[in-house]
Design a protein that fits this description.
Blueprint: H1 8-31, H2 40-59, H3 63-82, H4 89-111, H5 121-140, E1 168-176, H6 183-193, E2 198-204, H7 214-221, E3 223-229, H8 233-239, E4 245-253, H9 255-262, E5 297-299, H10 325-346, H11 359-383, E6 384-386, H12 388-405, E7 409-414, E8 419-421, H13 422-443, H14 448-452, E9 460-469, E10 472-479, H15 486-495, H16 509-513, H17 537-545, E11 550-556, E12 560-568, E13 573-581, E14 584-589, E15 593-597, E16 604-606, E17 612-616, E18 619-625, H18 626-629, E19 643-649, E20 652-658, E21 660-668, E22 682-687, E23 693-697, H19 699-703, E24 704-705, E25 708-709
Parallel strand pairs: 7-9, 14-23, 18-20
Antiparallel strand pairs: 1-3, 1-4, 2-3, 4-5, 6-8, 9-10, 10-12, 11-12, 13-14, 13-21, 15-19, 16-17, 17-18, 19-20, 22-23, 24-25
Helix pairs in contact: 1-2, 1-4, 1-12, 2-3, 2-6, 3-4, 3-5, 6-7, 10-11, 12-13, 13-17
Length: 710
């Protein structure tokens, strides 16, 4: 009658939906952390989140998740029904976050293929004790206790279609709210709840466990059941969870009507029964009361005159499906190969035959380029994700760390809807987390009196901002704390031997601030849970540089500091300029090129150590001959015959000499094979249209010399 219960087919959806709900939950909690209490809308929403996760985990038999969420659901059930005063708000916030952390940890185990075996007993007992105090307060205030929020443990069952003399027949239609999450699991819960009283039970859609798309059908058209039972309407309706339902239609049928309705549910009608034996009027049973017409018995009616709209008649809405990220990665790789194949076709040497008529080919190739570009843009947009979830994690970090350190800190978030490639998000989450922790621990003063003495508010403030600009994403963490003391930074770096021994005035402010990113450097005298070990900022810089990004640091003592991550929108395909040195092609990212110039030998400065510098408009820049650096024969030696390219990275500039410019094109970035020894100044490679391999220049690597920035 019912399909086999296959948990594997539901696991991905459970993980995705539960993750979304937990993010929504933390958003509500952290938004109202400084309020006096949760309002009715928040209480109802938190109750719904716990109720949904409880039901889903119960169906999938994850008992520890079910017990914890059910206990927190109990807490908010009493809050919703009794509206007590003087609820300890901050303690309640901590309880909710503890449950969120527990469930998140169990979900992470499931994602890693492990068993969710976390011990929930201590957390359940803690919530039980809190609920007991809450109930005691309710009684003290003279408020009537609400009916208990019951939960029935799952048991094995089997429904058999055997009808008795006292059997009743019902048609039940449940219409869920349009924003209901996992409505197919809600529908399964309804069938599960009726198992104890059902003699026969059919429902449509009948693939609610094996087909995720059934959730959309249920929301659009409703969930319909035929029930044969000995229970009354009231007993049946009490078993159905109506918390997510917008409307429940309940019709009682005769046995004949029930048999006719079986065909609608894919069940053959039973054979007609023999004609009943005619009885005397004296023996005749009392005339049965006419069965209610469809719609006579309605639970939670909708607005008067507002009928249910079928899916085919509904206005067109946005449809969203979830796709495995590995498929998206594979698709992105294929797009990269398509870009390379396009270049191979359009730049084929066979097309350079003199006098060859290619007008039709040029038209077709133009159309191909247009389609390829549009396809690439669509795929890129599919991979773009807002920073909302990342910023949400930062809210939680500020909340946790500030409470442990005893600091009163406000976090302001700006531009959380800024979109970035998903792979970029995965790389920046940890570095951003470290920067936020640093602002809370290092930046904001420990004593509020230190703030008020210089005219600042006693409450610290951190601003987390993201914006899109010039093909780059800028994410800044700004605090109004004590700022950085340049003299102390210089002296500490000098004492630890992290910098060469030269006067402080020979370093720029930006270079001094960058000392904090050196391995082993820390401004903390004592090691704490969050800082003082001299590791962290150097890892941040390495992670950011691995995705072609950079970290900018600025600070004013006693006013605060700002750390900005500058990262590309995407890593897969970049715009580049192809240049040639000798017989070797190189690619330079367009965004790194400041200008192309031609200069004479008189602009060069030769140092005794062999280093060269070039003077442009009164400024002196490091000069690199790529042919000498990479030992490339058959290249130009005289600077007058070549082209000087001025490159910029993190505010520093370097000039390189090339033989000639070839073309500008979209470059598919490929890693250098691991069997090739890593060469400083090269970040990857790509395939050009003629099939040759071009190396991609790494500007940061060119600026480094013997471990120090030039």
């Amino acid at each position: 009658m019912a399909e086999e219960f296959n948990t594997e087919s539901m696991l991905d959806m459970f993980l995705y939906e539960s993750g979304q709900l937990l993010e929504k939950l933390e958003g509500i909690i952290l938004e109202k952390q400084d309020a006096d209490c949760f309002d009715d809308a928040d209480i109802n929403e938190i109750f719904r989140v716990m109720h949904t996760i409880k039901g889903s985990s119960g169906v999938l038999m994850y008992e520890n998740i079910t017990k914890v969420t059910h206990k927190l659901e109990d807490v908010f059930y009493y809050l919703r029904e009794s509206h007590p005063d003087d609820v300890p708000h901050m303690e309640l916030v901590e309880k909710v976050l503890a449950v969120s952390d527990f469930v998140t940890a169990e979900l992470d185990k499931l994602k890693n293929g492990e068993t969710p075996d976390g011990d929930e007993k201590e957390l359940v007992e803690d919530l039980d004790e809190f609920l007991g105090r809450l109930k005691g307060e309710i009684k003290k205030q003279g408020i009537q206790m609400p009916q208990a929020n019951k939960h029935v443990e799952p048991t094995q069952f089997y429904i058999t279609p055997v009808a008795g003399e006292d059997s009743h027949f019902y048609r039940i239609s449940i219409h869920y709210r349009s924003d209901t999450q996992m409505s197919n699991l809600r529908a399964y819960s309804a069938t599960y709840a009726l198992k104890e009283v059902a003699e026969d039970l059919l429902y449509t859609p009948d693939d609610i466990l094996s087909n995720e798309a059934s959730a959309d059908v249920i929301v659009a058209e409703g969930f319909h059941m035929l029930l044969q039972t000995k229970s009354s309407k009231e007993e049946v309706i009490a078993l159905i969870d109506s918390s997510e339902a917008e409307e429940i239609n309940f019709d009682e049928l005769t046995k004949t009507e029930y048999g006719n309705a079986l065909g609608e549910f894919g069940r053959e009608q039973p054979a007609p029964e023999p004609a009943p034996v005619k009885k005397d009027k004296a023996d005749a049973a009392p005339e049965k009361k006419e069965a209610p017409k469809p719609g006579d018995y309605v639970v939670k009616t909708k607005e008067a005159g507002k009928g249910k709209t079928l899916a085919k008649n509904q206005p067109k809405q946005q449809s969203i499906i979830s796709v495995n990220v590995e498929k998206m990665d594979s698709l992105m790789d294929l797009i990269g190969e398509l870009v390379i194949a396009e270049a191979v076709v359009l730049q084929n040497p066979d097309l350079k035959v003199p006098g060859l008529e290619l007008s039709n080919f040029q038209k077709a190739s133009g159309q191909l380029s247009k389609i390829t570009t549009e396809l690439q843009e669509v795929i890129m947009s599919m991979r773009m994700m807002p920073l909302t979830n990342v910023f949400q994690k930062m809210r939680r970090i500020v909340f946790d760390v500030s409470r442990k350190l005893g600091k009163d800190i406000e976090l302001e978030v700006v531009g959380e809807n800024t979109e970035v490639d998903k792979n970029i998000i995965e790389h920046i989450t940890d570095p951003l987390m470290h920067l936020v922790r640093n602002s809370v621990d290092h930046g904001i003063e420990e004593d509020p009196a230190d703030r008020t003495s210089v005219g600042k508010s006693a409450k610290g403030k951190i601003v987390l901002e993201a914006k899109n600009e010039g093909g780059k994403v800028y994410i800044s963490v700004k605090d109004d704390g004590k700022g950085l003391n340049k003299e102390k930074l210089y002296q500490k770096a000098l004492d630890k031997g992290l910098i060469e021994n030269k006067p402080m005035n020979e370093f720029t402010d930006k270079e001094i601030f960058r000392f904090i990113t050196l391995p082993g450097f820390s401004t903390k005298e004592e090691v704490t849970e969050y800082s003082g070990r001299g590791v962290g900022m150097d890892v941040v810089v390495k992670n950011i540089q691995s995705i072609s990004g950079r970290l900018d640091i600025s600070s004013v003592e006693f006013e605060g500091s700002e750390m900005t991550l500058v990262i590309p929108l995407t890593l897969a395909i970049i715009n580049g300029i192809v240049v040639q040195v000798g017989n070797s092609p190189f690619v330079i990212e367009t965004a790194s090129i400041k200008e192309f110039v031609r200069v004479g030998e008189d602009s060069l400065i030769h140092e005794p150590s062999g280093e060269e510098y070039i003077v442009l408009r009164g400024e002196c820049f490091p000069f690199i001959r790529l042919n000498e650096k990479y030992d490339l024969p058959d290249s130009i030696d005289k600077i007058e015959e070549g082209i000087v390219v001025v490159l910029e990275h993190e505010g520093s500039q370097v000039c390189v000499l090339i033989d000639k410019l070839l073309q500008e094109q979209e470059i598919v970035v490929k890693p250098i094979p691991p069997y090739v020894k890593k060469v400083k100044g090269l970040s990857g490679c790509t395939q050009l249209g003629d099939g040759s391999i071009a190396l991609i220049l790494d500007i940061a690597g060119l600026l480094m010399h013997d471990g120090e920035r030039r």
